[in-house]
Specification:
Strand content: under 5%
CATH topology: Glycosyltransferase
Helix content: 55-70%
Largest sheet: none
CATH class: Mainly Alpha
Order of helices and strands: HHHHHHHHHHHH
Oligomer: single chain
Number of helices: 12
Distance between the termini: 21 Å
Radius of gyration: 20 Å
Length: 381
């Protein structure tokens, strides 16, 4: 953080709210788009649900376009500040958000937007957003950890949920890429796509497991740290839920490409993998909920990290929906419905607070010099 503050102090232009605009804003697209995607596949019929999902998808698409324009303007206007983001131990991690925002809106085009723009245009749009998001996501999965390993000074208590952001995009690419398999011509191209998605699945899963272990260790040694980071504990649910979703969709579409025996094995894997991971997701959700409640009781000011309450919960919902389809169990079906209700409630709260605080200018204000807190103790929420 200190490097960031020095750059801010050295720049001579007039301070304006538009100057403080980081990649973490794209989490709002992720958190909005997942509402539409989960609603499109929810295993119950609710009157007006499709129209609601379509409206939310349009909001996410417009928001994505607006944030892309704002990012370009910001980069052209404040290059020194933008360079400082990449060297900040916390802000740099959120460069994983833009590719996931692209992938989420792209998947929504096929799942729900097709009813408005037509299947052909929806698939073409998804291909563009998937290819762009996947390329950016593979880049962040390498570049951001590399910077963390070689250029960024890291404190012993620095591990937080945001470290997952740059390595999760390949998992999102695996899940959303699997949706495109039915729209590809049979042959080696479709087979390559299937195995590429599995490769990205493993790439992200292994990295996420390592980082989750570091977060658990940090919690055990230092407590839940300063309150602005507590919501990011929910990000751990992201790779968990998305991996269940990816395994499920890949297993369901494997028969389009591979032999019946291999397709059956991939389908079985989605259940044998998905159910235990779902169990751990429930354990982590309980821990994150209690730590969040503890912090809220003491004081947890609103910030963009609150969007961590949306997308990670959303992909757990989509993973639960996949398990409902694969096992036929009513328990998973109703768990997905309950999760979706919680998701929508969290989105309403976070979205309304974002609009309110953006209007006040607090979300685009420069960070306070005390934002980089000293190492936490377990007595601090």
């Amino acid at each position: 953080m200190n490097r960031w503050f020095r750059i801010l102090e050295s720049e001579s232009e007039v301070e304006t709210p538009s100057r403080y605009f980081g990649p973490n804003w794209f989490a709002s697209v992720m958190g909005t788009g997942i509402i539409a995607n989960a609603g499109a596949i929810l295993p119950v019929h609710v009157a007006g649900l499709h129209e609601f999902a379509l409206t939310v998808w349009l909001i996410a698409a417009v928001l994505l376009a607006a944030l892309i324009v704002a990012t370009v303007v910001h980069w052209l206007s404040h290059r020194a500040l933008v360079r400082s983001y990449g060297l900040d131990v916390q802000m740099s991690q959120f460069y994983g958000a833009p590719p996931m925002a692209l992938l989420t809106v792209g998947a929504g085009a096929v799942l729900v937007g097709r009813s408005l723009i037509g299947l052909r245009l929806a698939v073409d749009l998804d291909w563009v957003l998937w290819a762009t998001g996947t390329a950016l996501g593979l880049f962040t999965a390498v570049a951001i950890p590399y910077r963390l390993f070689t250029q960024i000074q890291v404190r012993p208590d620095a591990a937080f949920g945001g470290w997952l952001m740059p390595v999760v995009p390949p998992m999102v690419s695996a899940a959303t890429g699997a949706l495109l398999l039915p729209y590809m011509a049979p042959g080696s191209g479709r087979a390559t796509m299937l195995y590429a998605c599995y490769a990205m699945f493993g790439m992200s899963l292994m990295a996420a497991m390592i980082i989750t272990t570091l977060i658990w260790s940090r919690l055990a040694h230092y407590g839940s740290s300063n309150s602005p980071r507590v919501p990011t504990l929910w990000i751990v649910l992201g790779p968990l839920g998305q991996s269940i979703t990816a395994a499920g969709i890949l297993g369901a579409n494997a028969h389009l490409t591979v032999s019946p025996q291999l397709a059956s094995a991939m389908s079985v894997f989605s259940v044998l993998f998905g159910v235990p991971v779902w169990g751990f997701a429930m354990l982590w959700a309980a821990l994150a909920a209690t730590l969040t409640l503890r912090t809220m009781l003491s004081h947890m000011p609103f910030s963009l990290t609150w969007w961590s309450f949306t997308f990670p919960i959303g992909v757990v919902v989509t993973g639960t929906i996949r398990l409902s389809a694969e096992t036929g169990l009513a328990a998973f079906r109703w768990a997905s419905v309950a999760g979706y209700v919680i998701l929508v409630g969290a989105w309403i709260v976070v979205a309304s607070r974002t609009v309110h605080d953006t209007g006040k200018g607090t979300l685009t204000a420069p960070p306070k010099p005390g934002a980089s807190a000293p190492p936490a103790t377990k007595g601090v929420a």
